[in-house]
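Hi there,

I know you've been waiting on this one. I reran it after we fixed the sequence typo, so this is the corrected version. Both the input and the resulting structure follow.
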Amino acid sequence: MVQANDPDLRHSFASFAAEAGASLQLIGKALGHTQIKTTERNARLRDDPLQAMVDLGTFVAEIL
């Protein structure tokens, strides 16, 4: 289970995991959710998956 109390971090984790292809059920389990609706709210999915991957690559490059 992900031990993070910062809501932005949890939202980012859920969104990146969903965009990478993880199922909402798996993401919800990792975050300790008991309701799929909670996971759906946390996983802010983007309309443009290609732009999401570019943004993820930029984010990773910035932290390295």
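Quick highlight: The first helix runs from residue 7 to 19.

Best,
R. S.
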